[in-house]
Amino acid sequence: MTISIDLNAEGARDALRRATPTEKPSLIGLTRAELGEALVGAGIVPERQAKMRAQQLWHWMYVRGVSDFAHMFNISKDLRAELDKHFTVARPEIVEEQISSDGTRKWLFRFPPRGAGRPVEIETVYIPEEGRGTLCISSQVGCTLTCSFCHTGTQKLVRNLTTEEILAQLLTARDRLGDFPDRDTPDGAIVPAEGRKVSNIVMMGMGEPLYNFEAVKKALLIASDGDGLSLSKRRITLSTSGVVPEIARTGEEIGVMLAISLHATNDDLRDLLVPINKKFPLKDLIAACKAYPGLSNAKRITFEYVMLKDVNDSLDDAKALVKLLKGIPAKINLIPFNPWPGTNYQCSDWETIEKFADYINNAGYASPIRTPRGRDILAACGQLKSESERMRKVDRLALEAMMIAGHGEA
Ligand code: SAH
Ligand code: SF4
């Protein structure tokens, strides 16, 4: 069963929309120094107070999760009014929130055009599991790349997301899940029994994060700031299709965990599945992985491998995979292919996936098979695609039929 909240129903839209989007510049996504400069630049804070005020705002925005200056109680009423006149800390518009029968949640956000011609929409997915809650964040609207098995890849790049928009996905998810002090978790929500509701972040939503490097870097540094959102860098994973020139910088300048969308063990096949391979072939990709800063047995690279029936799922492929990764501290993540309307690929049979996984396990790799989550709301890997090309009902029904015929739904 899927619960979909229809935001066209009267009242519902207001309930989810935390604040009306405004044209005022947002303070979210600025570094502390930029925050101080913005306050001084607007003439509402004297230079000598800039640092202190920036710190105060930082705490309200990122520790307390406040989205309205009016709630910043240790700031004078006059200054709050001035802040509100010049800036915003409001959340973006949520167009739709869907809740899967397995507790997975998917939000469709709408952001201003910022040069894209019209407002843009992106998706963010929350996956609750025993002991952790993972938020899958988007970095771009669409993608410039065209991996042949990926739904997002069929949507052209509309634009990069800003630092604010990347962080807004985390802040809003935490609002909606009651993951800030003073906020309640919605009745019946499936969340980890203890600890933070959003304990992990994966940059595995729409887009190629390393083609939006600066904004992603800034957002992840704010998300991992110890005096703010405070997510450990060990719990943040950035997934790339293989933008080799940016891999070293990811380790040096961001310092998060790395995942590589590998999917094939030879250039001929990878050229077809992940076409960026033509530009940065396997030899270069593997060399960049071996040189990843901070790599150790305690800090391994995750290699993602989508299981495509009769394409890359033979035992020979498993052998080639083990050989290719020799010498790299690695985890292998087998992803059952998630179908979408119009695709020619099929997911490997369950038996094939298990055989493949066994071989890899025996070779000494932890190789969890990623259980598809939230398929009933098209929230699984590679199924994300935004409103601009939202699925027609007939396609949705076709997809459901395909999933039932294919490998069943748990
Ligand atoms: N652009 C980045 C991150 C987003 S995709 C990247 O490609 O790494 C997140 C993961 O989902 C990638 O490993 C991607 O290859 C995989 N994926 C894409 N489409 C999929 C599908 N239909 N089924 C299963 N996995 C898919
Ligand atoms: Fe883009 Fe990643 Fe999809 Fe490839 S798999 S098209 S890089 S989002």
TrEMBL record:
InterPro entries: Aldolase_TIM, Methyltransferase_A, RlmN_N, RNA_MTrfase_RlmN, rRNA_lsu_MTrfase_RlmN/Cfr, rSAM, rSAM_sf
Biological classification of the source: Bacteria, Pseudomonadati, Pseudomonadota, Alphaproteobacteria, Hyphomicrobiales
Signal peptide: none
Pfam families assigned: Radical_SAM, RlmN_N
Residues in Radical SAM core domain copies: 129-378
CDD domains named in the record: Radical_SAM (cd01335)
Known role: Specifically methylates position 2 of adenine 2503 in 23S rRNA and position 2 of adenine 37 in tRNAs. m2A2503 modification seems to play a crucial role in the proofreading step occurring at the peptidyl transferase center and thus would serve to optimize ribosomal fidelity.
HAMAP family given in the database record: RNA_methyltr_RlmN (MF_01849)
Underlying gene: rlmN
Active site: E123, C381
Note describing how the cofactor binds: Binds 1 [4Fe-4S] cluster. The cluster is coordinated with 3 cysteines and an exchangeable S-adenosyl-L-methionine.
Reaction(s) catalysed by this chain's protein: adenosine(2503) in 23S rRNA + 2 reduced [2Fe-2S]-[ferredoxin] + 2 S-adenosyl-L-methionine = 2-methyladenosine(2503) in 23S rRNA + 5'-deoxyadenosine + L-methionine + 2 oxidized [2Fe-2S]-[ferredoxin] + S-adenosyl-L-homocysteine; adenosine(37) in tRNA + 2 reduced [2Fe-2S]-[ferredoxin] + 2 S-adenosyl-L-methionine = 2-methyladenosine(37) in tRNA + 5'-deoxyadenosine + L-methionine + 2 oxidized [2Fe-2S]-[ferredoxin] + S-adenosyl-L-homocysteine
Entry EC no(s): 2.1.1.192
Protein name, entry field: Dual-specificity RNA methyltransferase RlmN
